[in-house]
Write a structure and sequence with these properties.
2 helices, two-stranded antiparallel sheet, 115 residues, Alpha-Beta Plaits, elongated, alpha+beta, 6 strands
Amino acid sequence: MKLIIAIIQPDKLEAVKESLTEVDVFRLTVMDCQGFGRQKGQTEVYRGHEFAINLVRKVQLQIAVNEEFVEPTLNAILKAGRTGAKGEIGDGKIFVLPMDDCIRIRTGERGAEAI
């Protein structure tokens, strides 16, 4: 079992959800988040004054999958989350973490069956 954490641009969320549905991944958690990497924020003008926004809005997806779904899930996120053919700075990151256990609260099922 793996926990996939993907940080993507907010405007790519619907495309990523559709792409995940195509590979039979239907369960995910979506959270709004902020951060910066190579983008280093941006400059905005508000009422004639220029100011820097140091944190950029992103969306974080958390997806728990069994081993056979890891690569299809990663490929789906890459396909739908990338800007253009080669991608751009700010498209995001994907982290793949080992997951020791999963428990479905309703039934008490554990492990792969709980996902």
